[in-house]
Design goal:
With 348 residues, this protein is α/β, with parallel strands linked by helices. Among the domains are: 2-53 and 169-249, no CATH class; 92-161, K homology (KH) domain (GMP Synthetase, Chain A, domain 3). The protein contains ten helices and ten strands. The strands form three sheets. Strands 1-5-6-7 form a four-stranded mixed β-sheet. Helix 3 (93-103) packs across helix 4. The protein is flat.
């Protein structure tokens, strides 16, 4: 089953479905369902099965986030909090830790992050108790050194032993049902994707629980009723189940803006989340009606230095967005930087 999904994904590399996230490991999905816990490295699908391509989320809360550029020397006002981009990195910290441990030969099941109350990177080790006790401190040391190399003092490291779960008969039955459903979804998505040029597809999703197929097309496309009929015919050729076809028209300029600001947030956020001095605990963005990047802090609105810290933080972010590297992403957009307190008050 996994091989089939992999082949489908590879066949769509140059299509609008190139970013579809399929279940990489169905058994792991069952485990996540049982314990409601996931480990990263790759995005997982939890709860309802929904395969979807879209970067047009109005609000994105970022967890592990990507690269940083080297920024030039700036004004002295940032004496209390450092400039962004002191390190030129192209991968997020979770990925770097995962790959370094794999490179060193450790049996790593996954690397994840938790932001519930404190920032914690957790690592699951595969193997028996003897192996776990042998490498536990080594793994923790490797991860800690990587964090130190970036001055990321906001994270603690927790190393645990991956426990193989014994599936019940109910779980096995659920797995079989999901595998069968995934095969059907694969066939339907592939067939619709073959019409991508005719339909001018920009996004494609299927919710097997609610029996919904959602298609995204540019807002210049006409004749969507006919498109719905054709999609229904495709669905009917693969299943007797009834699906509702929804077509969403996308403002392509706004979508491009959404992608760019999502990338901007991930770029800016790496240092902000990793270093205690910034006191940043969460990130969000919106491009409606205009771009806004939001930074949640650990400060209360009543803290004596809250306003001053917010002003300095805004200045550091603003200066960073004015660097040549970031100007290419901003593209002259008017934008707002919002700094929020722990009690959800605007500080700047």
């Amino acid at each position: 089953m996994e091989d089939k999904l992999k082949k489908l994904r590879e066949s769509m590399t140059s299509t609008v479905l190139s970013d579809v996230t399929f279940d990489q490991n169905l058994e792991r999905k069952i485990h996540d369902r049982i314990e409601k816990r996931s480990f990263t490295g790759k995005k997982n699908l939890l709860g309802k099965r929904f395969m979807y391509v879209s970067a047009a989320a109005v609000l994105l809360f970022a967890l592990f986030i990507g690269s940083a550029f080297v920024s030039p020397a700036m004004a002295k006002m940032a004496a209390k909090i450092p400039y962004l981009g002191q390190y030129f990195e192209s991968e997020n910290i979770g990925y770097i830790i995962h790959e370094k441990l794999r490179e060193k030969g450790y049996r790593i099941n996954g690397v994840g992050a938790s932001y519930q109350g404190k920032k914690e990177i957790f690592i699951d080790i595969q193997g028996d108790d003897k192996y776990f006790e042998k490498v536990k401190s080594e793994v923790e040391s490797v991860a800690t050194e990587i964090l130190k190399s970036r001055d990321y003092d906001a994270y603690s490291v927790k190393v645990g032993k991956y426990q193989e779960r014994i599936l019940t008969e109910e779980d096995k039955k659920f797995m079989q049902e999901q595998e069968k459903q995934a095969e059907q979804d694969e066939k339907i998505l592939t067939a619709i994707n073959e019409k991508r040029e005719e339909f001018q597809l920009e996004g494609l999703g299927i919710d097997s629980n609610k029996k919904i197929i959602e298609i995204e097309v540019p807002d210049t496309v006409e004749g969507t009723d006919e498109m719905k009929q054709k999609v229904q015919q495709i669905v009917s050729s693969h299943t007797n189940e009834s699906y509702t076809v929804k077509i969403k028209k996308i403002n392509m300029k706004k979508r491009d803006q959404d992608w760019r600001w999502g990338e901007i947030l991930t770029t800016v956020g790496e240092d902000l989340m990793g270093k205690k001095v910034y006191k940043v605990t969460g990130l969000a963005y919106s491009v409606y009606p205009s771009p806004e990047i939001i930074f949640k802090t650990s400060l209360k609105s009543t803290d004596p230095d809250a306003k001053e810290h917010a002003e300095q933080l805004e200045k550091v972010i603003e200066d960073y967005l004015k660097t040549d590297e970031m100007k290419e992403k901003v593209k002259g957009d008017s934008y707002t930087i919002t700094i929020r307190s722990k009690d959800k008050k605007k500080l700047n």
